[in-house]
């Protein structure tokens, strides 16, 4: 298995960048499209545990579009073979001084492109 094949890594980096743009822009349709539509897809958020795409959709559609801007740092994307990757990043929001967010995503290559199959977001003191 090749780790960090440059072509595969570029694909996941592009998907990750698309996700980030959709997140801070509250582009719910794109956010939904980037998660695998499956009852086994999981998203643990800062204040919620979401099991399955229906729960993730409901959360995204009800979330306020205010205060989503953030700055990323120390992002690490690693690919394993051609079809599996992880993306880890730290984030900061001006609205939360002294706090640092942590985001992890597990990405899977699907017939219709790269999809998040598991995600975790948490916030701690900086």
Structure write-up:
There is one protein chain. This protein has 126 residues and is of the alpha+beta class. Helix content is 29%, strand content 40%. The protein has a six-stranded mixed β-sheet. The termini are far apart. The model has no long low-confidence stretch (mean pLDDT 96).
Can you describe this structure in just a few lines?
The protein is an alpha+beta fold and 126 residues long. The protein has three helices and six strands, in the order ααββαββββ.
Helix and strand layout, with pairings?
Layout: H1 6-24, H2 28-34, E1 42-44, E2 49-51, H3 53-62, E3 71-80, E4 84-92, E5 99-110, E6 113-125
Helix pairs in contact: 1-2
Q: How large, in whole angstroms, is the Cα Rg?
A: 14 Å
* Derived structural class: alpha+beta
Number of strands: 6
The mean pLDDT is: 96
Which series of helices and strands comes N to C?
Answer: HHEEHEEEE
Envelope shape = globular
How much of the sequence lies in strands comes to 35-45%
> Can you list the strand order of the major beta sheet?
2-1-6-5-4-3
Largest sheet: 6 strands, mixed
Q: Number of helix segments?
A: 3
Uncertain spans: none
What is the straight-line distance between the termini?
36 Å
Helix content: 25-40%
Search tags:
single chain; 126 residues; alpha+beta; six-stranded mixed beta sheet; 29% helix
